[in-house]
Amino acid sequence: MSNIMEETISGAIVRSFFKKLEDHLSVDVGIVGAGPSGLVAARYLADAGLKVAVFESKLAPGGGTWGGGMLFNEAVVQDDAVAILNDFNISTKDLGNGYHTFDTVELASGLIFGARKAGAVIFNTVCVEDICVREGVVNGLVINWNPVRRLDMHVDPLVITTRAVLDGTGHPSEIVHKAVDKAGLHVDSPSGGIMGERPMWMEDGERTTVINTKRLFPGLYASGMAANNVQGGFRMGPIFGGMFKSGKKVAELILADLRA
Ligand code: 48F
Q1: Inside any domain, residue 224
Q2: Does ligand 1 have an atom closer than 6 angstroms to the CB of 68?
């Protein structure tokens, strides 16, 4: 008895995955975290022709998009960010007061699909555990399987070479923490370090998320709640315009820098 089908399928998966990984050992942009800001950035950067890899520690990309507000799977966006959802073909319902609702399962799947179809590759269950810094530039991501981290296994990582790194890790801003605490970098924030996120204030949080989205150090950028954590912005809960606009803004900043 032969296992021809089993061998074919296993071989196809192994060869196909390793080709994908090998093709992305060196990328233009390494995005850490497949939340809304990271996925929006991934899509616009890939649309512009850059080689983009997204590393997401969880099995399902999407970050904080799936659960809406308190597991009610609807969320809200303002008028001025609906155009971004239109770019992803995600439907919204106009409330007629400047706000729109949307289904968060459609949001999560739409953002993931949009980023993938634009050409960004998503490596799920892979966490970024460190960065590389050479001659004053952040130029690499240190990756490992998230189950390795979760099980506290002593396994050395691999490195992805980057021209730009985006911290899209949300509230903890894990990558900027590595830059500040471990590499000793002085980032572009009021203190040169991480200011820490402030409590809920939807209006100010939404406004400042976009302002807080910036290049923090050569080769290093932050978006979404990671950007707010670094700059001391307010949290805002299940309104997502700031996240989408932050992802679009950081894509434009990275594109301008890489094309300069
Ligand atoms: O937190 P998250 O959704 O990022 P975001 O783009 O959006 C925030 C909103 O979802 C919400 C909000 C809106 O009002 O406040 O919270 O800022 O997604 C961050 C993703 O990063 C992954 C994490 O699993 C999540 O999916 N992540 C975090 N640390 C790492 C990581 C890491 N070290 N390596 C890989 N992925």
Answers
A1: yes
A2: no
